[in-house]
Design brief:
The chain has about 230 residues and is mostly helical. Helix content is about 70%, strand content about 0%. The chain is built from 9 helices and no strands. The chain has helices at about 20-35, 40-65, 75-90, 95-110, 115-135, 140, 150-165, 175-200, 205-220. The model has no long low-confidence stretch (mean pLDDT about 85).
Length: about 230
Amino acid sequence: LFKSTPWRGTVNGSLWTLTPEVRMYTLLLLVWLCASFAGLRRTKILRFAVIIITIISGAWYLFHGRFEPHENNPRLIFMFFTGSSFYLLRERIAIERSVLLLFISAIVISLIQRSAFFVVLNLLLPYILFCAAYDFGGAIRAFNRIGDYSYGIYIYAFPVQQALASIIHGISIALMFGLSAIITVILAVLSWHLLEKRMLRMKGKVTERTEFWLKIALQKIPIKTPT
């Protein structure tokens, strides 16, 4: 069906992120398990390890300066653990509009030099996004009161566009945008209410069982606590 489309033979190009995402969660789990052996200091060690991984992957990414979205790109590690670091340090991060304006100004000024812009944008954009979400995003977040359709839109947009390109040869950009937007949103709404929301209800039970078995496994391993 998709052999004549721009991405020949690709059903859903958006799914390429799932493999590295699973790897990142697995790495985070391994870090947490290693930190668990430290007893009372496990929280500090976990926080330290996550921040160190963020710094190392960020330095590696900024040094190479690569945007290519392949699995070995350190950009993915850097972004994932930047989010993890923000979560672990959430109580120490203040949302200040003065800092936001300063960071935006720095990005604008860095446009003068491409390499400088690359570094400044990657370092400052996370904080800008947090400010946009938590300081200005009240109206935007209200969208989620009806349902969280963002992931469905991300997942279904690609195959919908591929199908339209295959069925309607020579489709215009305007028609592609309009039709794909309508169809994708409908599929995202159905996906949320019929599948995703129901699966999320099971998250608590799965989390409890996972924590239960992990605690049993860790109790069988002798852990030295500081005296």
